[in-house]
Design goal:
- The complex is a heterodimer of chains A (113) and B (113).
- With 113 residues, chain A is mainly beta.
- Chain A contains no helices and 11 strands.
- In chain A, the strands form 2 sheets. In chain A, strands 2, 4, 5, 6, 9, 10 and 11 form a 7-stranded mixed sheet that branches. A 4-stranded antiparallel sheet of chain A has the order 1-3-8-7, with no helix packed on it.
- Helices cover 0% and strands 52% of the residues of chain B.
- Chain B is built from no helices and 12 strands.
- In chain B, strands 2, 5, 6, 10, 11 and 12 form a 6-stranded mixed sheet that branches.
- The model of chain B has no long low-confidence stretch (mean pLDDT 91).
- Classes of the chains: A mainly beta (113), B mainly beta (113).
- Chains A and B meet through strand 4, strand 5, strand 9 and strand 10 of A and strand 5, strand 6 and strand 11 of B.
Chain lengths: 113, 113
């Protein structure tokens, strides 16, 4: 069974640009979560999508946004990139309303120059 | 608000030695507690979780953790460390009904032969 897949694995952008990261959850999972892992800051919760709806949002500015598609895959969009957006962006999926295990992808490493 | 503290940023042990990684949480009700491991270049993998019941939880790869309500702790232990255990370890607390995990800042484990 395929795990959580993310693309691209690495990308480099410059300040002010926009980026889209993609995530495909494990088959049967309806919830997708996005976390930012910046150096020295641990994992910071960004967004939670379930059944196509945004259910919860972390303490990030509005230029961080996303969506979940009918097939439960998800995109994370970051506009007006800033240097401090450089981080590993991790996507995780789970079986919706069950509080518990998250299954993580290997992440998309974004470098902003 | 929920929070997780991992007081040790970096721990070094010799192969075969015992290991204990500390985790303290802050949460008003009974928390859901997790330990994840992140090997270099990879996503996070669940080691073990505590929801209720027996306070000593067994996980994969020979790890265990003990929930101590009086100390608000959920320390991870392994009796004999292997070189392949070198990784970053994250403790996380879940909020019932929200599916959002709050992660600690992680402990990097280095294992010497």
């Amino acid at each position: 069974e395929a795990g959580v897949t993310q693309s691209p694995t690495h990308l480099i952008k410059t300040r002010g640009q926009q980026v889209t990261l993609r995530c495909s959850p494990i088959s049967g999972h309806t919830s997708v979560y996005w976390y930012q892992q910046a150096l020295g800051l641990g994992l910071q919760f960004l967004l939670w999508y379930d059944e196509g709806e945004e259910r919860n949002r972390g303490n990030f500015p509005p230029r961080f946004s996303g969506r979940q598609f009918p097939n439960y895959s998800s995109e994370l969009n970051v506009n007006a990139l800033e240097l401090e957006d450089s981080a590993l962006y991790l996507c995780a999926s789970s079986w919706g309303t069950v509080t518990g295990e998250l299954f993580f992808g290997e992440g998309s490493r974004l470098t902003v120059l | 608000a929920q929070s997780v503290t991992q007081p040790d940023i970096h721990i070094t042990v010799s192969e075969g030695a015992s290991l204990e990684l500390r985790c303290n949480y802050s949460y008003g009700a009974t928390p859901y507690l997790f330990w994840y491991v992140q090997s270099p270049g990879q996503g996070l993998q669940l080691l073990l979780k505590y929801f209720s019941g027996d306070t000593l939880v067994q996980g994969i790869k020979g790890f265990e953790a003990e929930f101590k309500r009086s100390q608000s702790s959920f320390n991870l232990r392994k009796p004999s460390v292997h070189w392949s255990d070198a990784a970053e370890y994250f403790c996380a607390v879940g909020a019932q009904g929200t599916d959002k995990l709050i992660f600690g800042t992680g402990t990097r484990l280095q294992v010497f032969p």
